UniProtKB/TrEMBL annotation:
It catalyses: D-glucose 6-phosphate + NADP(+) = 6-phospho-D-glucono-1,5-lactone + NADPH + H(+). Keywords: Carbohydrate metabolism, Glucose metabolism, NADP, Oxidoreductase. Pathway: Carbohydrate degradation; pentose phosphate pathway; D-ribulose 5-phosphate from D-glucose 6-phosphate (oxidative stage): step 1/3. GO terms for cellular component: cytosol. GO terms for molecular function: glucose-6-phosphate dehydrogenase activity; NADP binding. The active site is at H240 (proton acceptor). Catalyzes the oxidation of glucose 6-phosphate to 6-phosphogluconolactone. This is Glucose-6-phosphate 1-dehydrogenase. Its EC number is 1.1.1.49. Pfam families: G6PD_C (PF02781), G6PD_N (PF00479). SUPFAM superfamilies: Glyceraldehyde-3-phosphate dehydrogenase-like, C-terminal domain, NAD(P)-binding Rossmann-fold domains.
Length: 484
């Protein structure tokens, strides 16, 4: 199966923060891969902007190095790299100053889509937005792309939305959540709404519970002081996991267009119930032989910030009444694995005398590693020996199903940047969605702060704190094993 590559319109993309980590690791290599795939029109341009003094040749060299480092060897074609870097330019600009802006204004062309990627600290978003207007660089069709974190609570998110709204209309603002750019996440919508099979069962009558896991093996070493101001709830649950939950729980939109989809997601967020203290478990990874624990990594011996969190969440509406969503995410866990598991209920009556092999049907949507889906179904154990039941996975690995096309899927950032150029906001968070997510998150955080709760220690390389196991055990359920 050959995937279709539809070129986008000619664009001028300005990357503020072009010398930074995100630009070097994700944005610029991603743009090169899209160029290689034939999606970038030849006369499009990418303009790097940051304070560092550098000329065009210097920036081209930086991007060549980033491609060498972050693009797979079989995609590093010298002629294509030379062609791609020909499209680059650079302007030294201080978001807070006035220099460089007239030069940038002079670089912009009429007729090309103008997009501005704010890959800088959120404290600079307002300065950039203001100067883009002051210098007449942004037009009514221009788009801005803003990175996470989008605020640290409702008040700061609102302030950020207000600042951006002073200069840009909502349809021009693309708030990135790279989870939404993942192939499997979009497939979740296709599976739900392009098939008749699942939707009739997609409710509390047939679904026992949902588990969403985002497990990482790395700790916060190197960026501990920064992370310590945030924690797993702010860094992962409020944004990424919330978006996954929305796509599972939302009602079918009447049409697949940005605002209709986002309207349905917003309704889910607004239907989330407050989470009582007993349904929250927070943890911090402990030191192991040779590796420091969270407190040392965070450089804060008294830190109460969580590197792990598990929550039981209820969506208070007709569809989901009585079906809990268990969310967990953490650092330094057993394996790097992200998945959504939908566990169905028991059949109402068993006709088999020996049902000892019976297990629940589970639909597992794997985000990483090895993106794909897997539906666990019961069958008869093959061979003689009577009617014995066993569970087998109906497995769809994208890599296997689509061969090279499966391994060669665009990275989330690549896909999302192309969506920005196309002007499609479906996979971006709307301002009211972000605010609603914070409105749910804030009282949870305020609750544990007011109680003075301390996160529980857990062993590095484990599945998280013991108490998190109990969160499910007491409901007669168990977490799925965290494995790569
Ligand atoms: P970074 O490595 O610190 O890079 C920051 C960039 O901003 C540099 O290019 C820096 O270049 C530029 N910059 C700083 N102050 C500036 C100013 N006053 N005017 C113009 N440019 C300025 O940060 P990053 O990791 O790339 O992160 C960028 C954004 O993405 C942040 O909002 C971050 O939260 C978000 N993000 C990053 C990641 C990631 O994996 N790195 C993941 C998710 C979200 P000069 O010093 O030359 O000006």
């Amino acid at each position: 199966m050959v995937s279709r590559v539809i070129p986008v319109e000619t664009f001028d993309l300005v990357i503020f923060g072009a010398t930074g980590d995100l630009a070097r690791r994700k944005i610029l290599p991603g743009l090169y891969r899209r160029y290689l795939a034939g999606q970038v029109p030849p006369d499009s341009r990418i303009i790097g902007a940051a304070r560092s003094a550098m000329d065009k040749a210097g920036f081209q060299a930086l991007v060549r190095e980033a491609i060498e480092e972050f693009v797979a060897a079989d995609k590093r074609d010298p002629a294509a790299i030379a062609d791609f870097t020909d499209r680059l330019d650079y302007v030294a600009i201080d978001a807070k100053g006035q220099e460089g802006w007239p030069a940038l204004a002079a670089m912009m062309r009429q007729g090309a889509v103008r997009a501005f990627y704010f890959s800088v600290a959120p404290s600079l978003f307002g300065d950039l937005a203001e100067r883009l207007h002051l210098h007449g660089i942004a037009d009514v069709d221009s788009r801005i792309v803003v990175e996470k974190p989008f605020g640290r609570d409702l008040a700061t998110a609102r302030a950020l939305n207000d600042t951006l709204a002073t200069h840009f209309a909502e349809h021009q603002i693309y708030r990135i959540d790279h989870y939404l750019g993942k192939e499997t996440v979009q497939n979740l919508m296709a599976v739900r709404f392009a098939n008749i099979l699942f939707e009739p069962l997609w409710n509390s009558q047939f679904i026992d519970h949902v588990q969403i896991t985002v497990a990482e093996t790395v700790g916060v070493e190197g960026r501990g002081a920064y992370y310590d101001k945030s924690g797993a709830m702010r860094d992962m649950v409020q944004n990424h996991m919330m978006q996954l939950l929305c796509l599972i729980a939302m009602e079918p939109p009447f049409h697949f267009d940005p605002d209709t989809v986002r309207d349905e997601k917003l309704k889910v967020i607004r239907a989330l119930q407050p989470v009582p203290a007993e349904d929250i478990v927070r943890g911090q990874y402990l030191a192991t032989a040779g590796a420091p624990g969270y407190l040392a990594d965070a450089e804060n011996p008294d830190s109460r910030t969580e590197s792990y969190i598990a929550l039981k969440v209820h969506v208070a509406n007709w569809r989901w009444k009585g079906t809990p969503f268990y969310l967990r995410t953490g650092k330094k866990l057993r394996a790097r694995a992200s998945e959504i598991a939908i566990t169905f209920k028991e059949p109402p009556h068993s006709i088999f005398d020996d049902a000892s092999g019976w297990r629940e049907n589970v639909l597992v949507i794997r985000l990483q590693p090895n993106e794909g889906m897997n539906l666990k179904v019961m069958i008869k154990e093959p061979g003689p020996g009577g009617m014995r039941l066993t569970q087998v996975p109906l497995d769809m690995s994208f890599t296997e199903a689509f061969g090279d096309e499966g391994t060669d899927m665009p990275d989330a950032y690549e896909r999302l940047i192309m969506d920005v150029i196309r002007g499609n906001q479906t996979l971006f968070m709307r301002g009211d969605e972000v605010e609603a997510a914070w409105a749910w998150t804030d009282p949870i955080i305020q609750g544990w702060e007011a109680r003075g709760d301390r996160p529980k220690g857990y062993d590095a390389g484990s599945s998280g704190p013991e108490d998190a196991l109990m969160l499910m055990h007491r409901d007669g359920r168990r977490w799925r094993e965290i494995k790569a």
